[in-house]
Design a protein that fits this description.
Alpha-Beta Plaits, single chain, 7 strands
Length: about 220
Amino acid sequence: MSRRASRRSRPARTITSASRSCRRSSWRACAAGSNGSGSCETEPSGDSLTGLLLRGPVVDALQSKVADAQRRRSVLSVAILDLDGFKSVNDTFGHLAGDRVLVTLGRLLATRFRAEDVRGRWGGEEFLVAFPGEPCEVAEGLVLRVLRELRETRFAGDQGEAFHITFSAGVASYPEDGLTVESLLKTADRRLYHAKRAGRTAWCARTARSRRPRP
C-alpha cells in the first residue's frame, strides 16, 4: 500500500507583532529542553480537551524528528494551523460550541495521518502537525484535506444555531526552510501570518503567495 493510499481522507484572530514575538520567546524556552527553564519538562504531555500533545512535548518530538531527518539525510515538513475567527465563535455561539470545534479538529488531526506524524495543540486555537519524510508540497496537500473536511462539518451553537469554521496554515520544510526546530517554526509562523492577511481560509507554503482551497 502506498504512503498516500494509507492516509484516510474525505472529499482573525489578528496576529500582532507582539503576539508573534511572545510565541518566539516560548519556542526558545521550550527548545532549550531540560537545560532551559524546565517549564516544558514538568507540564503534562497531553491536552485534556483534544487529547493531543501540548507545546512542550511537541517541541521535544520535533527535536527528535529533526535529528532523525539530519541523520537520514531526509526531509521533514511542519504546519501551524490557526482556526479562523475562533474568538467570534466563542462570543457568538458559546464556549461549549468552541470546545466542540477544538475537539473535532483535534480528532481529525489524530486520525487522518500516520502514527509517526507529530500532532499537537500549539496553544489556544492553534495546532501543529509535522510530517517526517514528506516534502512541503505533500504536507500542503495533507493539510488541505483536513481543511476541506473541517469546512464541511456542521457545528451547533449552545442554542442550536448552525455554523461552520475553517483554519489557515503556514507550512515549512527541513532542510530548505531551516535546519533547526526554531527556524522551522519561525518560517511556518511567518507563512501563517501571510495566509491570515490574505483573507483566512488559506495556507502559505514555499512561495510568498497565499492560496485558498477551491469550494
